[in-house]
Structure prediction request, 281 residues.
Amino acid sequence: MKNLVRLSKSLILVLLLSIVQMSRVYPQDPKYDWARTAGEAEIYHSVTDTLGNTVVFGSFTTATIKFGNFEINGISSGESNNLYLVKYNSVGRVLFATSIFGSDDNTVLRPVKLDVNERGTIIIMATSDNTPDIQVSNATLTFGNINENVFIAKYFKTGRLLWARAARTAGGLMTSTGSDALIDDLGNVYTTGNFNADTIWFGSQYLTGDTTGARLFLVKYNPGGSVDWAKTAQSDNVGAGSIYGTFLALHNDEIYLAGNYNGDRSFIFGTDTLAIQIDEN
Prediction:
């Protein structure tokens, strides 16, 4: 017990010294180059491109909102929310602002991911709930239901929409959720997430699931927005279980996927099997 007391005192002393040192290193509030605000808006994601511009992705609940000289539209009925995408230059001037909104009362839109490549091309990933379609700049995306659906959009560095894509589901719960999305320097887009449906379509390509749990998806879109390929993890046995795609990383020509899984079944990735062992004790 004496050793524990001495150890605790040592730890407390180290913490106190750390606090004193930190107060000496940071004697005053940090300096900011610029700061901006805009109505009833929430920030979910922000990135800085190679030129020092800042791109921000978030949500707002009003019928209109203004960023600098740009006023964008949404809907304000019921409990609906809308999404915005805005870009500031290195001194805080707004370069563009654009919005995404649904068509029904109580539309729920959730920002998931924002990414920018070295050319300044922008992608966003989000999920939609409780609306049959959404307006993405000058394009309308239509879903096969009003359940939770994942969608992505790609923008030129000036804010012009290049393309937008939505997943379509059939059978089961008919839901899809996004988790991560990346754009490489060539303009290819990679997405992951999960779906709970018998079938999910990405363009003309489809993946099959089942009713016992969620399945992950991993999809590559080429620069023009066509699907190069779509992958999932298949199960080799009967039982309950789910597997989720959570994070993506790119290195050279390789794609890394991280996620999680649960249940009492095994999942197959190509020729590799991920086995789940249950301890009955």
Summary: DSSP finds one helix and 24 strands in the chain. The first helix runs from residue 2 to 25.
